[in-house]
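note to self: the first set is below, dont mix up w the second
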Amino acid sequence: GGYGIARITTILPTAPQTTLLPLIALALWGSIMANIICLRQTDLKSLIAYSSVGHMALVILALLTKTPWGLTGAMVMMIAHGLTSSMTFCLANTAYERSNTRTLIIATGMQLTLPLLATWWLLANLANMALPPSINIIGELSIMSTLFYWSPTTIIPLTINTLLTATYSLYMLITTQRGKPNTTMYMYPAHTREHLLLALHMMPLVLLIINPTLITGP
């Protein structure tokens, strides 16, 4: 979807700011609403899915500016969030296999029984909230810089969007990992294949942190 929007925006003629303003305002509002919906979710996989909606709204915002910096930020965001979202979905599946439920208030306290998976949960959520030095923050800062140059007023909804992203990420982490473990769940140890799968998500993210020019260009 992001690739298709990038192709369309590059072939469109240069539009004045007044023409793009309703579209950018709608994307900003949609991003904030998607993040607020994340805070109201009780289903773990629904929360992760709505987080992708919020991040893809930022991609649309960057592409609507039709600037090289915005295109770079959108591409970095798509790659970084693609790896991060897939990693969190894998973690949600590991929790579902042990608890047979996706309800957040039931699948709790997994840090005490599965400490290694709790480490993966922490890394995934820190990347999702774009904590430095993750590649996610490069994408978000590029998009925020592009939109601020386009219109300084956009910094207000973008700041609200960033705070909401950090809030629901911490909410997901604390709800699933902290608290009293559910005694009805059979918490068998994590398999090697699960750690390998999560490591294969994290290694590209670390590689891009070391050398971001692989996707941003020289």
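second set (the one i keep forgetting abt)
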Amino acid sequence: QPELGKPMRNCYSLPGPDFTYGMYMHKRDGGVPEAIGHWDSVKAKPHKRVMPRDFVAMGRAAVGEGCTTAREFALYYKFKDIRCKDKQILRYGCKVPPGVTFGRPPRPPTPFFDVMQHRYKEMWMEHQRARTVVQHVVKKKVGMIGEVRENRTTFLRTHPLPRKEESFWHPQRFQKVWAPHSPSQHQRQLSW
């Protein structure tokens, strides 16, 4: 029976104070001090990449040497081995060529005192004033000359269209009726 107000005890005995709980790493494990104090860097091994053969360059060189038959070309390829050039500048373990800069160049810094003194606002206001002066001068020149660009409305005001004479409306069937010129035509119409 458990004691009153206390949890029930288990039957297992705990190990001593020198016991470590969890899994122990048998490699080099110095804990947090080693992780903070010593940066574990891995040195890159020199990786030599074998490039494929450049048959275009070998064929060009063989023709330059005077090879004409397939046997001569095969012998030339056997004794002269030209490889393709590596187009990638950087590979794992390669050195960066001098003068190469990566990334985008930084934008020029904004002068802080110009921002504080509202210099950009003043420049914009001067630009707007100059633009207004130019527009005013152009408007005066147009007013002095007196030439206004003519559009359809002004043209029709100066040259009105001729008025159409009003005619009474006649039905379509009475449009082609002949006026009787002689009694013979009149008789023909009556006979129809």
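remember for set 2: The chain has a mean pLDDT of 78.
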